[in-house]
Amino acid sequence: MKKLFIVLSFLCIANSANAQWFFNKERIANLENFDKKKFSWGYFLGFNSYDFKFDYRDQYADDNTEILVERSAGFNVGLIGDMRINEYLNLRLEPGLYFTQRDLTFPGFTSEADYLREVKSTYIHVPLLLKVSTKRLNNIKPFIIGGVSTSLNLSSNQKNPEDNEQGRFRMTNSTNYYELGFGIDFYLYYFKFTPSIRGVFALNNELIADDDPNSPWTGNIDKLATRGIFVNFTFQ
Questions:
Q1: In this structure, is residue 27 part of a structural domain?
Q2: In what residue span(s) does the Outer membrane protein beta-barrel domain sit (predicted)?
Q3: Could you tell me the mean pLDDT of each successive run of 10 residues in the chain, 236 residues long?
Q4: Could you tell me the pTM of the whole model?
């Protein structure tokens, strides 16, 4: 439901533009020379939905060991630096601060203190992206975007000597990702407004295992990796 809400939010923003933008043969061009600048700057606000993908060890790979993830909608804010390569290609740097929470439910426990782990994360997220646009149509320009990114998890607990025995779920403090998404540039009278949606997928194992190799919390996990959806609204 949360993913559906995010997608519908994006579609509503896109469809709120006057339909004439799509169908009129010609309109007055806003910000006609905006895309001719070599460098441009801006900021973004948005929402996120982070998830975890678990890979289990073979001897534990059955339904009774599945860890459940409850996602929450988070908040994004950040800056944008854009370098024009040509009419259709732009290189973008989008450093931002991302807040999110995921609740993990572990099987085999009866006490909430044992089976529930609230994983609150604050990420400094820095993607380097290639934006591939179509030709501008009146005051809109659709695009796809993709690239690589890295993040620093300020709430990782990586160096905490306590583990799940003391109620501490630990993750690595840095993660690398690849990203892919799409969006639409809307050229308004005073600024360019861009709604976009992007998927992010971690490349490395983020789990810091418990000290006990047979831990009922982490002993059955071979790999834990973040995946998520970002919905950003950019102003330039």
A1: no
A2: 27-206
A3: 46 45 61 90 96 82 76 96 95 97 93 93 97 94 97 93 93 96 95 96 95 92 95 97
A4: 0.84
